[in-house]
Amino acid sequence: MRMRLMLLGGGNALGQALIRLGAEEDINFLAPRPPQDGWDAASLTQLLDETRPDAVINLAYYFDWFQSQSVSDTRLAEQERAVERLSELCQHHNMTLLQPSSYRVFDGSRATAYSEKDEPVPLGLRGQALWRIEQSVRAICPQHVLLRFGWLLDDSPQGSLGRFLAQAEKPGELLMADDRRGNPTPVDDAARVILSVLKQLDCAAPLWGTYHYAGHEATTPLALGQAILDEARHLRPLVVQAPTPQAHAACPDAAEEPQHAVLACKKILHTFGIKPRAWRAGLPALLDRFYRHG
């Protein structure tokens, strides 16, 4: 790898997966420790003025965007300003910016898979903030890759998988939507995709733009929950045997979570040659790491 790579967010689950995967191929990342209150416009300015990497992978707000149950509008506004400043810095110093985004930019009103050509109409505060961040990156920093991911699953105790497994260890119903659809995407698979994109950008291929990536085989939260329980039971006794079906409309997050969140991944295949991997194949390693770390 000729490019010097700066990774913001090296301490979170996706950042750690990317560092692990890079180490296997002797690809190293500058992964600075964030300030006590997290990366903001001022600290990013100082960091990039001093280090001048060739590419920045911005996973600084990964947990808030992909794993947290909710994020305050104040916090999202601060993150928007920080990404806008990061885009300005990347443009000023001629750096490449790889910025993650999410299926949440769509409203979930269509049953067919969303492609990069579909117009985003986000529902909740998080989706709206991500859409504004995307627009800001496009307008300010031409040398960008925006990667929209599906339902990301990681091994963090407070993440969506961790919350689900904590509930499964207690008596009671574990309600999961049976009429909501999306693509589960293990964090190791997302890291593989980021690394594959970086390798081709390292060859000076100007493949800027927006891309979708999500695990192979769309499913429902109910079916995903059952697959997780079946696999987790090999590692830990669980009280809940099966999740209980619930209508999307009855879910507490129905107002901001798209009912249909399936992503079409043809563009990333045709551009970078990246094929979607089956999410089921990634569950054993993900759960093994979750319980070992827990």
From TrEMBL:
Binds 1 Mg(2+) ion per monomer. GO terms for molecular function: dTDP-4-dehydrorhamnose reductase activity. It catalyses: dTDP-beta-L-rhamnose + NADP(+) = dTDP-4-dehydro-beta-L-rhamnose + NADPH + H(+). Its EC number is 1.1.1.133. One of its GO terms (biological process) is O antigen biosynthetic process. It comes from the Bacteria. Pathway: Carbohydrate biosynthesis; dTDP-L-rhamnose biosynthesis. Residues 3-290 form the RmlD-like substrate binding domain. Keywords: NADP, Oxidoreductase. One of its GO terms (cellular component) is cytosol. Coiled coil: none annotated. InterPro entries: dTDP_dehydrorham_reduct, NAD(P)-bd_dom_sf, RmlD-like-bd. Its cofactor is Mg(2+). Catalyzes the reduction of dTDP-6-deoxy-L-lyxo-4-hexulose to yield dTDP-L-rhamnose. Belongs to the dTDP-4-dehydrorhamnose reductase family. This is dTDP-4-dehydrorhamnose reductase. It comes from Pseudomonas endophytica.
